Amino acid sequence: MAWVLIVASLVVLWVASLCKILYTSSSPSRNSFLTTGGAFQKRNVLLVVAHPDDESMFFSPTISYITSRGHNLHILCLSIGDADGKGNIRKEELYQACAILKVPLQQVKTLDHPELQDGFGRVWNHTLLAKIIEGEINSHGIDLIITFDGYGVSGHCNHRDVHYGVRKLLRDTPQGNIEAWELVSTNILRKYIGPVDIWFSILDAMQHSGEVMHCLLNEHPQKSFLAMAQHSSQWVWFRKLFVAFSSYTYANMLRRIECM
Ligand SMILES: *[C@@H]1O[C@H](CO)[C@@H](O)[C@H](O)[C@H]1NC(C)=O
Question: Quick one: signal sequence residues (predicted)?
């Protein structure tokens, strides 16, 4: 009898959290992320990821927030994800996912650099990463970068190296007015409680000012699912489960990267 109660309360909690996400994100937003003062100013944002599918699996609430508010989003994917020899397919899948996520395809770039190949144990040179990202910033007039944090959600070394590449860039160009934000990695429990995690995220964000932390709720979780489904070569049962139960499908916590 007790377990029925437990399961029932979990279901209620799940549904209530989902309702909170859909209700909050459809009401006029009080979220101040990307706003500068009162008037609307279009930002040029660069999302830097390591592999095709990172954007749909981890960053879709952020992507949705940026594009639905009329900002310009560029995506730089630093590898074609060729660890299993499917790089060319995965690259195409990235473009299909970006079409679902409403990111203009000419603003999506994938690299296939010999020194930046997909894989555990492959160390990516931070100086090289900083140089490549700087090139993108200059050619598109980017004023804000979003990327992984130092743990990289899953702990994948390529994700972490991307973070340190961005940090290196920020350190090397201190005069620049580039703003950078990282996707906060949560602990394993929070990672897999789906929409229920938003209560922790909202609390976290409330304890910090909008200068350093934002919680972005996903306006269209079903779209994230659809975007991830475009990555057919990766769309196996455990990833379907991951996308349904991952809190990154429902909300993103972003923290400002401070470079001293
Ligand atoms: C890292 O990349 C930079 C710039 O491309 C290069 O000068 C440097 O030698 C590389 N370092 C290593 C350890 O490969």
Answer: 1-19
In a domain, 3, yes or no: no
Q: Is residue 241 part of a domain?
A: yes
Task: Report the largest interatomic distance among the alpha carbons of the chain, rounded to a whole angstrom.
Answer: 64
Q: Yes or no: say if 181 and 254 are a contact pair by the CB < 8 Å rule.
A: yes
Q: Which atom of ligand 1 is nearest to the CA of 115?
A: 14
Kindly report the CATH number assigned to the domain that includes residue 200.
Answer: 3.40.50.10320
126 C-alpha to ligand 1 centroid (Å): 8
Q: Which of 115, 124, 125, 134 to mutate to test the pocket of ligand 1 (most atoms within 8 A of CB)?
A: 125
- HSE-CB at 238 with a 13 A cutoff on CA atoms is 0
User: What string of pLDDT tens digits covers the 260 residues of the chain?
Assistant: 889 999 999 999 999 999 988 888 766 556 789 887 667 889 999 999 999 999 999 999 999 999 999 999 999 999 999 999 999 999 999 999 999 999 999 999 999 999 999 988 899 999 999 999 999 999 999 999 999 999 999 999 999 999 999 999 999 886 667 899 999 999 999 999 999 999 999 888 888 887 899 999 998 899 999 999 999 999 999 999 999 999 999 999 999 998 76
Q: How many domains does the chain have?
A: 1
Q: Which domain holds residue 246?
A: 39-256
